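Hi U.,

Before I forget, here's the chain from the pilot set. I'm dumping it here mostly so it's searchable later in email.
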Amino acid sequence: MSDVFVGRQPIYDRQLNVVAYELLFRSRGDVNQAEITDGNQATSQVVHDAFMEIGLDLLVGSKRAFINLTRDFILQDFTALFSKDRVVLEVLEDIVIDAELIEAVRRLSVQGYTIALDDFIYYEHLRPLVEVADIVKVDILALTRPELQRYVAQLSRYNVQLLAEKVETRDAFAVCQELGFDYFQGYFLCQPDIVTRERSPANRTVLLNLLAKLQNPQTAVHELESILRQDVALSYKLLRLINADPGTPRALESIHQALSGLDVKFIAAWVSLLMLADIDDKPHELMVTAMVRGKMCELLAEAMGAPAQERFFTVGLFSVLDAMLDSSMADLLPSLPLAADVAQALLRHEGVLGQTLQCVLAYERRDWDYLNALGLARRTIRDAYLNALTWTSNVSDHLEISC
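Structure:
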């Protein structure tokens, strides 16, 4: 499994106390500088690895995290996962600043986010952005001493705090203190370090907790939307799949529109498939097996007239977790918020859920003696299997999985 790398550089106050860390994109652990070819990808990677892989608590503790945002990231409002108290949204210096961008930043400010402007150079037409900002970062290496003095005097007219970045000498630090800068960042104080972590099965447990929440029929639409906003790629795939569903003839334009127009249980099943499909270091056949089992369990529940048929789908789908995550069911299940009967069905094949799963497994093994346990005709079980195969094949076409 590949490693995760996140650069981290401390930000100090005037008393040289660490008050925050800037989180930086790093593609490798042996090169302590950014190698960025796609700003959106770099931002998404930092956000994903910091929040979903390493964890913000480990990276910054109780301090705040400065995170660089591209124009697309701001305009598409992928900030819902950020805690307003823990994250500073940093507007990069190389993005196009126009009325649309300024309005988007203003909305984030009204919502309570702290806004920082990175390597900002003042021009009069950018005044509305300065008026929205809370912190302005100044690249002191790009300015002469007189220019820096004029710049500080100009910005002091606004209600912003100043952060001196690229402070590389003691003299530069002293000058910035004298000029009244509030925060400091640079090699004189501390070079960025790289926090590394191996991508491990434990990180996938986060996704599985989301899966378990999605399988709850009581989950509200706004909860689903909040979860999906945490992953741009997942949101895109979900929209593509929903658009491909025959029951959704209209073109969908947003996650909110998709979720508002569809049953939560339906969305939960499809999102579950999408999220498991993203576990891409396992054979595709394992994903196909999970889908067939889930659908077959659901169809058998329908044949029996059992209520809450989505629970049967969950049991079948999750029956491959041990193979997916290279761990035993006994070790995996305690970390998931599953209902007790669902967990026991997976662990010991108990109850009607477990018996249905056992029937599916018996059909896979051609263990005909066990097929009578549910009281269903063998033809009914066979049809459920064939229909599950057909459904899986149709879904796989959109998931780009080979059956």
